[in-house]
Amino acid sequence: MTRQVQAVPGFTGFGEGAVEFYDGLLADNSKAYWTDHRAVYERDVLAPMQALLATLEPEFGSGKIFRPYRDVRFSKDKSPYKTACGASVGPFYVQVSAEGLLAAAGGYQWAPDQLTRYRTAVDDERRGADLAARLDRIATTDVHGAPLTIAGDRLATRPRGVAPDHPRLDLLRFRSLYVHRGWTPDDALHEPEAVQRVTAAWRAARPL
């Protein structure tokens, strides 16, 4: 039987204006829009995300919420604000946006030395087979109606020096590896049930 996490007082779901706020930001990513709607962000997005992390902390640890401002110094896209509110707890990630709720876990971007260690592990028969089995388990675990999706940046061909008949060639192509589950905007986004969705997704991702 799945153990349920009870929401602490204060987390009642994301505010009714959260999705509309990000819909508007997608249409008008400007300082003027942000200034005019900052109170909506703080009330319907930021405060609920803080309460969500507080609810998850006893099981997963303390988390941090990412700044809403984009670093545009080296980007062609000069839009000043992120179009989602994201937070991380170690390898776990949660996000709310105009697309709804997203829960994820794993490695989104790897440094060269991390990629080297990953491929060495996947090439090893024992560790590589273990990872493949864990991913198979994740891909068949129901998380509120659907399993987690396995994703990541992948090579179109094969890494240099890897045999074309390697039994775990598909895994060796990954340059990052994570799993995720999303929910489009619905009533549950604005209710305590949202924390149950994130909890179920993060628990299902633990084997990774």
Description:
This protein is of the alpha+beta class. It has six helices and six strands, in the order H-H-E-E-E-E-H-H-E-H-E-H. The chain has helices spanning 18-27, 31-60, 112-123, 125-139, 169-172, 193-205; strands at 64-65, 84-89, 92-97, 100-107, 149-151, 177-183. Strands 1-2-3-4-6-5 form a six-stranded antiparallel β-sheet. The model is unreliable at 1-8 (pLDDT under 50).
Quick structural summary:
The chain has about 210 residues and is an alpha+beta fold. Helices cover about 40% and strands about 15% of the residues.
Tally of separate helices: 6
Note the run of SSEs as H and E.
HHEEEEHHEHEH
> What's the average pLDDT?
93
Structural class: alpha+beta
Portion in helices: 40-55%
**Radius of gyration, taken over Cα atoms and rounded to an integer in Å:** 19 Å
Number of beta strands = 6
Largest sheet: 6 strands, antiparallel
User: So what's the overall shape?
Assistant: globular
In terms of per-residue confidence, which ranges show pLDDT below 50 for 5 or more consecutive residues? 1-8
Q: Distance between termini?
A: 21 Å
Strand content: 15-25%
What spatial order of strands do you see in the largest sheet?
A: 1-2-3-4-6-5
Key attributes of the depicted protein:
6 helices; disordered N terminus; six-stranded antiparallel β-sheet; 40% helix; 208 residues
Set down the secondary structure blueprint.
Layout: H1 18-27, H2 31-60, E1 64-65, E2 84-89, E3 92-97, E4 100-107, H3 112-123, H4 125-139, E5 149-151, H5 169-172, E6 177-183, H6 193-205
Helix pairs in contact: 1-2
